[in-house]
Amino acid sequence: MRKFITLDFFIIFFLSILAFIFRFKGLMDSHPFWVDEFSTAHQANLLLTNGLSVFNNHQIHFEIDKFAPTFLVAIFFKLFGQSEGIARLPFAILGAFVPVSIFFLTKQLFNKHTALVAYLLSTTSYFFITWSRQARGYVLLQLLVLLGTYVYLRLIKNPKNKSYFVSLLLIIFVGIFTHPLFYIFLAAVCLHGIFSLMRNRYYVTIIVSVLAVVSFAIFPKVSSLLNSGGLGLRNNLWYYHSFLWREYGFIVYLGLLGLLLAFIKQRKNISFIFLYIFLHLIFINFIFSPVVTRYTLPIFSFLFIGFAYVITYLTDHALHDLKIKIPTTYNLSHATILLPLLFTLALIINGYKFDIKPNNFYSVNHDFREIALVDYHQVYNIIKETGSIEERQTAIIDTWGDRLNWYMGMNYQPAYFFRWLNSKDLMKGTPFGYNDAGEKIILKRESMRFIGEVSDLKQAMQTYPRGFIWIDDDTLPADVVSYVKQNFKQELYTDHYSLDDNPYSIWPATLYSWGIK
């Protein structure tokens, strides 16, 4: 029993509890969703309503490539009811296992005291905690990349172990239904695997077969992105350079330095990590159109591992210089464990990018202002309290249909989508058709009606004696915005979520109404 309860075991147990506390504290306060979280909730409700027919129902828009996180939210909705906190709960649970995965991967690559440092960094990282508390699949993607790396590195070391290969296939299966960015990891596995396992024709054949099947499966998605402008030659380097170097330069620099030092002794393992980081950065910088910092989340796991290696490398050499013998057995001395941990703790305490005290709210705009955070509870409380919603004679026009569905239900008929009529921008394109009344409708959105120009708005006003319109983007159709400002009543103006800790995170938005007394 004494051998089992060692100092490092106590530290691991403590950090495990700490990881859960950071990710769960205040989660059930149900802060308003942000844009993409509304989509996750809507997709989960589509799955609950339609079952597995969502896969072949051409009347609805269902994101099959994000089925895994959608399925998790649907299960939690079914078990515990629907709220923002419940939608985020499965990802908080998964996020608490990210530091555990980093610990075991780092231990496999190096040693236990390096793994403890990486564990501490990932447990208290503001970036990691934040994306463990959002109702999106990014933390699941991060966890699968870590697990996939752990299993793959085991496989190339023990090619005859079929259990590792089967485990990797299962991870790949879940990953391709989690997020399209997982295909970058899959490409790294296939490229590295062909060279690492090229002597084993069995593995090369299966790797090539898996890659062929996956390529065939994702071809329609890739074709769609190419046609819409989502894929192509881009230059997003300025954006990610600002984030990775100006915001996280210290971590990125030491993380890459640590991986370079480790490459000298472990070329096969570290070469895979470098290959994945390289492919990931090339894709988001020069191929994929949308630019958001959360796309870098999976590579930060490896940067923290490299960062941890630098810390233990320096402290181990310091102990050598002080002529303190470093044990090479499994049971490390207290000094070998505590010195790098104390050094890491000093960095965390003084670091802007780490958190030593759990908060009730973690802002997705902590580093960059890139996601609109608005108190949508306040907006829809006004609509419900003053709009005589029960009579279903009050039109509601929102710029995000999933948000309207979340607050008003999927069957609220006087619902309209206010978007751009014609735009080549991937994020602003609005395919639409017409219903029998000649109104524009959004295709595959339960025939939700569409406001794209003033004539559409006037037609909605003739149909419904009162209504609300939410305007939260200056680039929306100017004729509609101008008409609303001149003729409608302003009900609410807001530009900042009270708990957002970024003072520059300003998102002007206004709720207008007509026919409301």
Throw out a few tags for this protein.
20 helices; single chain; globular; about 525 residues; two-stranded antiparallel ribbon; 6-stranded mixed β-sheet; 2 domains; alpha/beta
Q: Note the gap between the termini.
A: 73 Å
Q: How much helix is in the residues?
A: 55-70%
Could you give the count of β-strands?
A: 8
Shape: globular
| Major β-sheet annotation | 6 strands, mixed
Question: What fraction of residues sit in β-strands?
Answer: 5-15%
Oligomerization category of the chains in this entry: single chain
Low-pLDDT parts are 326-332
Number of domains: 2
Structural class of the secondary elements? alpha/beta
Specify Rg, calculated over alpha carbons: 25 Å
- Averaged pLDDT: 87
Sketch the topology as an H/E string, one letter per element: HHHHHHHHHHHHHHHHHEHEEEEHEHEE
Q: How many alpha or pi helices?
A: 20
Strand order of the largest sheet: 5-2-1-6-8-7
Task: Provide an overview of this structure.
This protein is an alpha/beta fold and 517 residues long. It folds into two domains: 7-349, no CATH class; 376-514, no CATH class. Helices cover 58% and strands 7% of the residues. The protein is built from 20 helices and eight strands. The strands form two sheets. The chain has a six-stranded mixed β-sheet with strand order 5-2-1-6-8-7, sandwiched between helices. A hairpin with a 5-residue loop joins β3 and β4. α2 (35-50) packs across α18 (401-408), α3 (67-80) packs across α4 (84-96) and α8 (138-157) crosses α15. The longest helix is centred in the middle third of the chain and has 28 residues, at 201-228. It is globular, with a radius of gyration of 25 Å. The relative contact order is 0.10.
